[in-house]
Design brief:
Layout lengths: L8 H23 L2 H17 L9 H32 L8 H18 L4 H12 L4 H8 L3 H16 L3
Length: about 170
């Protein structure tokens, strides 16, 4: 499938040739290993290839750095969620632990929920997690967070909308 971009393949190839080595080096310093750096650099250029870039880039390194930084943040968040999930699984008795296929599906679901809730205000996210994970009622959440019950309801509605109808 052709890229959804007005930038030509030749432009992207030139951008890749001129900046791939630099970007991979920059990422290697950030992540501490060549494997993850190479993976993130490639993902960055895939994003560039799929972008709807209209005009030539005036600051290509700034553009690439922004994309790479966002990908790195997503990777760090995903690994933190995965680590917490693996720790929770390790604490479960083996007969209760889900099979590997279900584990992967659960992990993907957790990452997606985190992504959807990521733009919510901290209190809204906290209220939602207290309701879903701790099974607290509105009054208990209000007391825990030091906010009114009506604010809790508003936060929970906003979080539910974000989960079920992402932007």
């Amino acid at each position: 499938m052709p890229p959804a971009s007005n930038t030509s393949h030749a432009d992207i190839a030139a951008l890749y040739a001129a900046h791939h080595g630099w970007l991979q080096g920059w990422l290697r310093k950030k992540v501490g290993n060549a494997f993850d750096a190479a993976d993130l650099a490639q993902s960055t250029f895939v994003k560039v290839l799929c972008a709807r870039q209209q005009a030539p880039l005036l600051e290509p390194r700034a553009y690439l750095t922004t994309i790479a930084r966002n990908l790195l943040i997503n990777q760090v968040r995903r690994r933190a969620i995965e680590q917490a999930y693996l720790e929770a699984l390790a604490a479960m008795p083996e007969p209760v632990a889900p099979p590997p296929e279900a584990r992967l599906m659960l992990l993907e679901t957790l990452v997606e929920i985190d992504r959807r809730l990521g733009t919510l205000p901290a209190l809204a996210k906290q209220a939602f997690l207290l309701a879903q994970l701790e099974e607290l009622n509105h009054g208990q959440i209000a007391a825990e967070l030091g906010i009114s019950v009506s604010t809790v309801k508003r936060h929970l509605a906003k979080a539910a909308l974000r989960c079920f109808f992402p932007e």
